[in-house]
Fold this protein.
Amino acid sequence: MRIAAELQPTLGTLLRHLLEMLDGAVEQAYQRAGLDYRPRYTPVMRVLIDVGAASIRTISQRAGITHSAVSQTVSQMAGRGLVTLTAGADARERIVALTPTAQAIVPALVRQWTATNAAAQALDDELSAPLSALLREAIAALNRQSFIDRIAAAPATSRPPARPAPKSRTRTSGKSRR
């Protein structure tokens, strides 16, 4: 099937590639600065720096990421000694707090975040339209109508071309080809 070779990369492929390029570079910057830290920790860290110890739910709401993503990220951060988890007001609630190890790296993280934001601004300035503005617009549009609803509303007429029927092979002699 040759369809894949003829198609341009899809939106999902382009977004994954862009995120890999950005996150990979940011992670390298952390490593160069001597930090054992991943970009995915940043939304959680920023909330905890801002409000102090907080529930997973509060972090999720303040950071604008899913409860599941926060829970997974917090588990990774706990494994690296950056946060502690304690029971909240009820058995289901967990409170996340920065450890002294995490608090000690905050100044270095702030320097990295400042440099990252400056690099992002330079990238925005280089593009025909600022990427950050387009991302905000896309998120707002998807909040108005989800992508699954857009898929359902899309015309189903653009389907891949039908496969051609296999060519029949005729034998010219009684010998078989092997």
